[in-house]
Amino acid sequence: MQYPKPFTDRMQRMLGEEEFSIFLEALQQAPPVSVRINKAKAAPAPGLQPVPWTETGFYLPERPLFTLDPALHAGAYYVQEASSMFVEQALRQAVNLSEPLHVLDLCGAPGGKSTHLASLLSPQSLLVSNEVIRSRASILAENIAKWGSGNVLVTSNDPRDFSRLNDFFDVMVVDAPCSGEGMFRKDAHAMEEWSEENVNLCAQRQQRILMDVWDALKPGGVLIYSTCTWNEQENEQNIAWLAEQEGAESIKLQLQPEWGVVPAQLEGVEGYRFYPHRVQGEGFFIAVVRKAGEEQPLHGKSKKKKYKLSIAGKKEQALVGDWLQQPGQYTFVQHGEKISAIPENLFEAADEVYQHLYVVYAGTELAEIYGKKLKPLQGLALSQYLDRSVFTTAELDLEQALRYLKKEDTCLGTSGNDWLLLEYKGLPLGWAKQIGNRINNYYPKEWRIRMELPAELPSGSFVIG
Ligand SMILES: C[S@@+](CC[C@H](N)C(=O)[O-])C[C@H]1O[C@@H](n2cnc3c(N)ncnc32)[C@H](O)[C@@H]1O
To answer: What is the dihedral of CA 427, 119, 141, 143, to 10 degrees?
Structure first.
């Protein structure tokens, strides 16, 4: 593999002659495959090797055809590169996760960090998961819905729009768009795109992004910055610049020597690098800073009278009222024909977000009103808090599950006139409507599996137990 010379020259300088050759060798190896389990839905298959810095990450011995595992579509796990799971250490070490927090994941799509954050935060916390590119925000919303946490708002805004939410967030994750050197072995395109000029442009864009969102972080709040590149400009130089501009204080993380994570210091700022010859993962950089000033308690109830969110009508509320476990903990809101559940204690904060940002997905989407009836929505099927006892369920075998996920109409040998919650290994996949002995498939069209099924299907899930 021919790497750009300025890149190899710099890596040689950063690593030294001997380590550089081991690094180059590691770049030729196949990347490890790892997943993060959604413990609210499933347990890992026995015997999987854990990713050492997270409680829910595991390596797989080989890369399966993930598309053919219905458990993935059910949100039972997320396929994620292992180094980036280190965000868990940053959060656990720098933030009190048992408190109710307002958290922003600014560069959220496709949702690796956001689904991870959703698993780590308490249900009393609000996660705003943002993605500026609209088409990517839809993919983010899909992955958030599949994860099923219910305390997430997906927004699609430019970083500068967040200045409207002054001092709102306790924690921000900025997983910035970068030159992607750490992805060279996974993605040949990253290398083709690479140039010194692009590194400079990325570094400037990252500074702009950091400045744009900084005012939305509360005094005393924590910002976690990460990239998947190794150069200093996009990493510690940017964080040193932020510390100098804003008086942010660098937070040092405790590392286990066996992790193989390499600390990086610059002008009193601490960062952490991940190299493929030292960790089982791709290239990554992470740093954590705290904004100067006293931590403020969460905003109490505001005196605001005019809400942007509309409460669903009594009739509609009565219909959806028993679909989630502990329905008393939610406020049911209506947006057009759609009814969603927002955790009651997050209503004020969610409304604040609605006042200022473009919200793509909120809480748990429960139902759509059509005429005098309600159609259950995909968000409900995939919710971690769905009360399954309220619905008629049908267990599918692997082929039936995959055909359902391809959005084919099927016949299950059942009859009736009811909504059916279709499951695979007890994991809800989505809705179908039974009309006599016919089944209409209500799986979202945009989410469907597009590949042709092979003649021989794999034997079950290789990831979950
Ligand atoms: C490294 S990726 C994020 C990966 C994501 N955090 C995850 O873990 O799945 C960076 C994201 O930033 C978005 N992005 C691109 N330009 C941006 C900008 N100017 N401001 C904010 N985000 C941007 C990209 O669309 C991309 O989704």
So the answer is: -50
Residue 278 and residue 260 in contact, taking contact as beta carbons nearer than 8 Å: yes
Is position 228 annotated as part of the catalytic site?
Answer: yes
Residue 405 phi/psi, 5° resolution? -70, -20
Could you please report the per-residue DSSP string of 149-181? Answer: -S-EEEE---GGGGGGSTT-EEEEEEE-----G
The correct answer on CATH 3.40.190.10 for the domain covering 5-290 is: no
For residue 97, give both structure tokens.
């996760």
Query: Contact at 8 Å (CB) between 219 and 183?
Result: no
Instruction: Report yes or no: 320 and 385 within 8 Å, Cβ to Cβ.
Output: no
pLDDT at 2: 86
What's the pLDDT tens digit per position in 183-219? 998 888 889 999 999 999 999 999 999 999 999 999 9
Q: 41 C-alpha vs ligand 1 centroid, how far in Å?
A: 27
Q: Class of 310-381 per CATH?
A: alpha beta
N residues, the chain: 465
pLDDT bracket for residue 412 (50, 70, 90): confident
CA distance 394 to 279: 43
Please determine, looking at this structure, whether the domain spanning 393-447 carries the CATH number 2.30.130.60: yes
> Hey, whose CA ends up nearest to atom 16 of ligand 1?
177
- Whether 175 has a binding-site annotation, put simply, is yes
CA of 172 to the centre of ligand 1 (A): 14
Same fold, 5-290 and 310-381: no
**Tell me, what's the pLDDT at 416?**
84
Provide the sign of the torsion angle of the four alpha carbons 18, 20, 21, 23, taken in this order. positive
Kindly list the domain boundaries of the chain, sorted by start residue.
5-290, 310-381, 393-447
In this predicted complex, what is the ipTM? 0.99
CA distances from 339 to 312, 349, 365 (A): 7, 18, 6
